[in-house]
Amino acid sequence: MVIIPSFVKLLPIPEPLITPDLINNSADFGTPEESHDNTVEFENSKNISRLISEDYFTDSILPCDNTTSPGNWMIYCSGKLLQAVMSVKLYNDSKTFLDQPMKQNTTGPMIMRAFHRTFSGPIENIRKEELKKFVDKYFDKEGNELDVCELPEWAPKQFSGIKDETYNAFAQRIHFIWIQLCRKMKEEVKDEQNRFSLLYVPNSFIIPGGRFREFYYWDAYWIIKGLLASQLYSTARNMISNFGYIIEKHGFIPNGGRVYYLRRSQPPMFAPMVYEYFMATDDLQFVADMIPLIEKEYTFWNNHRSVNVTKEDDIETTYNMFQYRTESQTPRPESFREDVLSAQHLHSNSSDSRRKFFQNIASAAESGWDFSSRWFSDGQNMSTIETIDIVPVDLNAFICYNMNILSFFYSKLGNRLKHDEWAGRYNQFRDFFTQVFYVSSRRGWYDYNLRTQKHNTEFYPTIAAPLFAQCYDPLNTKLAVDVYNQIEEMGALKWPGGIPTSLRQNTSQQWDFPNGWSPLVHMVIEGFRKSLNPVLQQKAYEIAKKWLETNILTFNISNAMWEKYDVKEPDAKLATGGEYEVQAGFGWTNGAALDLMLTYSDRLNWTGPRLENLVGPKTTTTIQTTHDTITTTSSSSSSSTPVSSSNTSKSYLIITITMFIMYIGLL
Ligand SMILES: OC[C@H]1O[C@H](O[C@H]2O[C@H](CO)[C@@H](O)[C@H](O)[C@H]2O)[C@H](O)[C@@H](O)[C@@H]1O
């Protein structure tokens, strides 16, 4: 095991740079309030305060409560203090307060008593400075409960399979970022869970980055793909074990590692994580350990998220499918202010509609697509959100994948009976899936709307989710080609930076045009790659190359990897839209990029301008020989050591060399 010396943490970590070049001028980078629909004209802060102070909790199902988080639900999931913080807009990002631990020797009920003593009048009368004093007295800084950590087996890596100098240097730089994104919990989180919104897990893990300072469920699949590409097997295993621990404790995997996520999940990627780990390591004992937990998670989806679907053209047949559908009926605590403002068209006297509206919002967050025209009945406005009327194609493809993986694992474990049971379920579900989602006239799988009894046949990358999850008959080799042609005809493949999340313009939502997200782009690439059709495999490579170019060009300017990108621009821009600013880090972008660079390691060839930040400036050396003069052009760096002319890159060089020496020493 290589121990990373603690001084490495003290070396300067380059700050991400947001340069004007990176921001698309036509889009407003904006504050959350400017970019969130419905809020623009709602200027009067008194009115906002009044709206935020209304009662959203009585008779509503809360995001967490006495049963799930007895000691702290009154702070992190409901209550007047939460409302006051949102009312005065104590922080630019609503999530900040929710991630602040309570100070030592305090409890939730104690803080609430103090709050009511200090602020006895209506919330609208509370002054920001006084509330700030109160919060500073009782709470620590957000994220204070987490430490940076030592990745068990991290060492500088050559990525010798990646022959191209630029891609090789890029892979090495991403490999470094794992160190920055690793977190472990302070002991007190385990011992005094009630003081923290953070959910305790036993092992260290990789966070997405920025405001996302806890684990996220579906992000982890792509993070794990990247860790496996980096050969950080123990870290990947630790992350999966954490999820196993969480399933054991809570019966499912919440959206993220905070109590305010305890009523909703995210796309079910636990079984695929174990599958990827097994394919990389052959560790069958780990599969045996995890398989009861995979089944337990499946039971959660089956008991709490299934729905009977009957189609208009065949009312005799009922299909058991799955939905994103949390029970929670209040504004999301981490976006309380934003959700209340989005609901301003609904009055308090129509509390049932308001509850349903919040349930639809939180259910869209469960999908990971928060938010998108995909969930809006008018395809444009948040006020028309109807997530729980929709049966989503991606979720059902993932469930199908889970069934297939379970049958595969049981066969590996030699359990014939269980293998047959899951193979039977998989085969039947796959047929039902085709019946419910495939639309022959539009050559693809589409979300089904229970209210309208129609498919939404607009483009979303979810059309390729069944290819990724292999939820179709492999003998039907024409199907993947049809789907590809459909996607191309829809105009989704013509964008210079990758694949957009939809073709719906100006929704101001982050999961819409022109934003590209690595999990979706990776899913489409993998879908075509797995199709076994050589033409589609070539297309998969071309999309991967385009996406990597977007990542790499942006990295070269900003020194950072980003959560999402604007794919309509030829020269790599950061994405905008949604309720928070685009975040740097970034877990799944790094994971998907590393995985793609390894998949296509022998083909990738950087043809763009020389990226000095990555590979250093070109140097020209003149060698005088007896007979003639030979001029060679080379990079100032070797492919194993990233060097650049910038100061930040120099610090990477120092880290690399220092760590390499330490590594050799430790061996
Ligand atoms: O705070 C707003 C929302 O933020 C998260 O969503 C986004 O980031 C996640 C982490 O990268 C990602 O998993 C999700 O797909 C993104 O939309 C959070 O997951 C939401 O629940 C939360 O309301």
UniProtKB/TrEMBL annotation:
Instruction: Check the record and name the InterPro entries matching this protein.
Output: 6-hairpin_glycosidase_sf (IPR008928), 6hp_glycosidase-like_sf (IPR012341), Glyco_hydro_37 (IPR001661), Glyco_hydro_37_CS (IPR018232)
User: Tell me, what is one Gene Ontology molecular-function annotation carried by this entry?
Assistant: alpha,alpha-trehalase activity
Keyword Hydrolase set for record: yes
Please report a single Pfam family linked to this protein. Trehalase
Write out the catalysed reaction: alpha,alpha-trehalose + H2O = alpha-D-glucose + beta-D-glucose
PROSITE patterns for the chain: TREHALASE_1, TREHALASE_2
Q: What class of enzyme is it?
A: hydrolase
Give the EC number: 3.2.1.28
Could you list this entry's UniProt keywords, alphabetically sorted. Glycosidase, Hydrolase
Organism domain of life: Eukaryota
- Keyword Hydrolase carried by entry: yes
Region feature (Disordered): 622-647
Q: Which residues cross the membrane?
A: none
Q: Which GO terms describe its biological process?
A: trehalose catabolic process
Q: Which family does it belong to?
A: Belongs to the glycosyl hydrolase 37 family.
- Return the protein name: Trehalase
Natural source organism: Caenorhabditis angaria
